[in-house]
Amino acid sequence: MFKKIHVGMRTLKTSLSVMIIVLIAAFTTIDPQISALSAVFSQRADFGSSFTFGIKRTIAICCGAFASIVYIFLSGLLPTNTFTTALLAGVGIAITIQVSLLLNNSAGIIGASATFLIIIFNIPGENQYIYALWRIFDTFLGAIIAVGVEYFLPRPRVLKWTDAYNRHVPKFIQIVTTDDDDHTIS
């Protein structure tokens, strides 16, 4: 009926990445939400896959931000009405998808499209340019933190620490170190 609680290596590393980002955000002007989401998306089973996914995620956000900048520029030149907004939104999504495909990042199309749509529909016009640039930075920071955690805490090193911890605590609060710690988010 109830599934056993499983806190594995990837969960711990993802949690650590988010904690680091929240601490950095406390002393800077970064958006911890965007950076933390980027870290959650980027944290993978090993350094190589974390690095690759972090790069793909950052490229996706760049594609969406680029398309939103094109949208913002064109919307400033054209009359403001529903038809223009709809036309530019469609053109912007086409740009987002095509740039993603040109950069061989089809897996990033959804994230790129979400970035584009959030910027054009949820961010006030006077802040859209700067938000697009900050979104790229926040995403890059989250990916870098996740990849850094994976680099500095590789599985063999963490296994030694978790084994030592597990020997000193009751079974119900031990850290599981099996390979089935898959909280895959695509």
Give descriptors for this structure.
mainly alpha; 186 residues; elongated; membrane; cell membrane; single chain; transmembrane; FUSC family protein
Task: Give the biggest sheet.
Answer: none
Task: Assign a percent range to the helix content.
Answer: over 70%
Radius of gyration: 20 Å
Number of strands: 0
The SSE order reads HHHHHHH
Shape: elongated
Secondary structure category: mainly alpha
Number of helices in the DSSP assignment = 7
Strand content: under 5%
Gap between N and C termini, in Å?
28 Å
Name the poorly predicted regions. none
Mean pLDDT level: 88
Number of domains: 1
Provide structural commentary:
This protein has 186 residues and is mainly α. The protein has one domain (9-22, 33-161). It contains 7 helices and no strands. It has helices at 9-26, 32-42, 47-77, 82-102, 109-122, 128-152, 155-166. Helix 2 (32-42) crosses helix 3 (47-77), helix 2 crosses helix 6 (128-152) and helix 4 runs antiparallel to helix 5. The longest helix is centred in the middle third of the chain and has 31 residues, at 47-77. The radius of gyration is 20 Å and the shape is elongated.
